[in-house]
Design a protein that fits this description.
By secondary structure, this protein is an alpha/beta fold. The chain is 46% helix and 14% strand. It binds adenosine monophosphate and zinc ion. The site of adenosine monophosphate (AMP) has 17 residues, from helix 1 and strand 9.
Length: 489
């Protein structure tokens, strides 16, 4: 029997504001859509946190035997935060004098490299907005035909008031329309719209706008909200199980997604809306636009001014998993140091399990412990509760190693499998050995830096240059600064 038949998951649905029993539309199958990154700059650790939460959720569903189609898009067609703000991909392209697709390529590659470092599973489909312009134009036409959008000066806007006559704009964010108006800044050019709360489905491109496509209304580009509606419908159907993203996307992005899908298909598109909470730095949301951010690479290479040392991707992953996905998490040096200790304890215990000798009787109830691990995950993917259970497991390991407790061969096998499954397959941590190698490499480079410093003190410039150049040949770059020498690999 599939595992999912034995485990009932309760998940917090932002739509109802309650934990609900999860029931997929088709038994055994799950359709899940998560808003992906806007690829105009490097992803920061806050973005990684959101994607990692859904990676853990995806991993758990798969472990339970569900067949999951997991769609996570790439926003590569600009990112309009409001109707008149400049498209961030075009702006960046102009500043850097690059083709927009060069920007997109560079940061998509960076995104994938980061995900690989942090041991993410690939989604089933990773569609791009620019690959679905035709579908977006079709959806706009349908919304116009259904009387819920209007064309002005080559741009198309969604008519929120008209929509709200029959439907509920605000169903997800619980904002009432008056609120939405107050939150819409008056900007030049907004006079185009009939009402301030209306949002763009298609924008006519100004002459300086680089990313542009032909459409029945003008040469222009689609509004940001539309791509997710179109790609989720295309790959998961008009109604699907789960839609996720960070809390900051609830309004307007997800609210608009619901309105667009209702306007196209006359159905609520999503059964369960899941939102992750923010990763904070210095008490504020980590964000690329305010510069209050740290990049994943800066953390594992240690080249940043916030942390005292480098922290491996597994330690950082463990740090993120120690908080529930709906709680705010604050990044700090102390928190990462504590996570590093915890991660090392967990991994040492994991390695010790293999040294335990089975006995004729069991003095520990492993099945209750195993059930507790599942109960934690079944309760809205409570990874901190799961980690608390895994530390119960660490206590068991210590008792077993010290011969203060016993397990039969069968119970020992259950213990080992369960421990490994939750640590590696579900939390997605990697074993101490794989991270050890990067620690060892860092240690060796630190040693070379110390030897080079000694050579410089002795004015042995030939040796100091040789060390620097040969490390560079190996792809390791030394940088001399006020606070000493740092390196990047
Ligand atoms: P963006 O590329 O800005 O669209 O963001 C990609 C994803 O990262 C979205 O789901 C955001 O909600 C999420 N996100 C952005 N900032 C943070 C943060 N500080 N903590 C957690 N998630 C975030
Ligand atoms: Zn989206």
């Amino acid at each position: 029997m599939e595992l999912y038949k034995q485990h009932q998951i309760k998940l917090y649905n932002s739509l109802s504001g309650k934990k609900e029993i999860f029931k997929p539309i088709i038994d055994g199958y799950i359709g899940m859509y998560v808003c992906g990154p806007t690829v105009y700059s490097n992803v920061h650790l806050g973005n990684v946190r959101t994607f990692m939460s859904f990676d853990m959720i995806y991993r758990y569903f798969m472990h339970l035997g569900y067949k999951v189609r997991y769609v996570r898009n790439i926003t590569d067609a600009g990112h309009l935060t409001d109707d008149n703000a400049e498209d961030k991909i075009s702006t960046k392209a102009r500043l850097e004098k690059l083709e927009p697709m060069e920007i997109v390529q560079r940061y998509t590659v960076d995104f994938h490299e980061v995900l690989k470092e942090y041991n993410f599973l690939s989604p089933s489909i990773e569609p791009t907005a620019t690959g679905h312009i035709v579908e977006q134009i079709e959806a706009i036409q349908t919304i116009i035909d259904n009387g819920l959008a209007y064309v002005i000066n080559g741009s198309v806007y969604f008519d929120v008031l008209k929509y709200n006559e029959k439907e509920n704009y605000g169903i997800l964010s619980k904002r009432i329309i008056e609120d939405a108006i107050e939150n819409t800044r008056e900007l030049d050019g907004q006079s185009d719209k009939k009402n301030p709360q209306d949002f763009a489905l298609w924008k006519k491109a100004e002459p300086e706008h680089i990313q542009r496509w032909n459409s029945p209304w003008s040469e222009g580009f689609p509004g940001w909200h539309l791509e997710c509606t179109v790609m989720s419908t295309k790959y998961l159907g008009e109604q699907f199980d789960i839609h996720g993203g960070g809390m900051d996307l609830k309004f307007p992005h997800h609210e608009c997604e619901i309105a667009q899908a209702q306007a196209c298909n006359h159905k609520a598109p999503v059964n369960y809306w899941m939102h992750t909470n923010m990763l904070n730095l210095n008490g504020k949301k980590m964000s690329k636009s305010t510069g209050n951010s740290i990049l994943p690479g800066e953390i594992y290479k240690g080249n940043n001014e916030i942390l005292s040392k480098a922290f491996s991707p597994s330690v950082t992953r463990f740090f993120i998993m120690q908080a529930h996905y709906r709680s705010i998490l604050d990044l700090s040096n102390d928190a990462l140091l504590a996570s590093e200790k915890g991660y090392n304890r967990l991994m040492n215990a994991q390695q010790l399990i293999d040294t335990i000798v089975p006995s004729n009787t069991s003095s520990l109830d492993i099945n209750i412990w195993k059930q507790n691990c599942y109960d934690a995950m079944n309760d809205d993917f409570n990874s901190p509760m799961l980690i608390a259970q895994l530390f119960e497991g660490v206590k068991f390991v210590n008792l077993l190693v010290e011969n203060k407790a016993t397990l039969t061969i069968d119970d020992l096998a259950i213990f080992r499998n369960t421990f490994n499954t939750f640590v590696f397959d579900i939390l997605g941590l990697e074993s101490l050995n794989s991270d050890n190698n990067s620690d060892k490499l860092s240690g060796v480079v630190e040693l070379m830096i110390a030897m080079r410093n000694e050579a410089r003190v002795n004015k042995d410039w030939a040796l100091s240059d040789k060390i620097r150049d040969e490390l560079l040949d190996l792809g390791i770059q030394l940088k001399d600064g006020k606070e000493g020498t740092t390196f990047s690999i």
